[in-house]
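Thread amino acids onto this structure.
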């Protein structure tokens, strides 16, 4: 399977990789993850199989985002939506720059919960997004109730901006500026290209 981004994280001593979601290969996994008790409250996509498969097809066809499967040491365990803010509903909630990117994520496989993987995974995805040289800011809009994830975003270098209303949730708008991210992590020795 071709990966779009691979890195070795020295903190957890594991490879982290992201590959573009393959509908045929990944549908059942992602469907299963959306029905996990820790995912349902924040994603609300615990749909019947046929409805969910149509939802995933539509998400894949959306040109302003790319869907990824995150892997640790080659094991698929997380789902990511990396999107351009321009063309997304959130662009109307702040003064967005043309190359701002955003992230939605979930750790789907319960055996990877509570093991300290969230921050290394998020750090790797933000690093991947900053490969686009024109992107100066990555945003997130976690559910305002999701205190664990908000804490992880802050540890990664995101700052809380303001609560915003979105169609499916009250979210906390958060920004991670390239300069902040690079200052926090570039010298830390967390990464080696795998």
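Threaded sequence (194 positions):
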């Amino acid at each position: 399977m071709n990966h779009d981004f691979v890195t070795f994280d020295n903190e957890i001593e594991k490879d982290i990789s992201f590959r573009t979601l393959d509908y045929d290969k990944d549908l059942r996994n992602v469907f299963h993850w959306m029905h996990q008790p820790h995912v349902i409250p924040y994603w609300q996509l615990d749909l019947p199989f046929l409805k969910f498969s149509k939802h995933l097809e539509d998400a894949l066809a959306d040109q302003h985002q790319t869907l990824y499967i995150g892997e640790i040491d080659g094991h698929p365990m997380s789902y990511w939506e990396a999107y351009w803010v321009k063309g997304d509903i959130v662009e109307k909630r702040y003064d967005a720059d043309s190359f701002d990117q955003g992230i939605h994520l979930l750790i789907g496989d319960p055996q990877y919960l509570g093991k300290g993987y969230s921050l290394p995974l998020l750090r790797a995805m933000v690093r991947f997004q900053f490969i686009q040289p024109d992107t100066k800011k990555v945003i997130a809009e976690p559910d305002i109730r999701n205190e664990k994830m908000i804490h992880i975003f802050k540890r990664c270098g995101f700052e809380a901006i303001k609560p915003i209303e979105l169609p499916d949730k009250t979210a906390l708008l958060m920004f991670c500026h390239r300069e902040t991210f690079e200052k926090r992590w570039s010298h830390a020795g967390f990464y080696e290209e795998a």
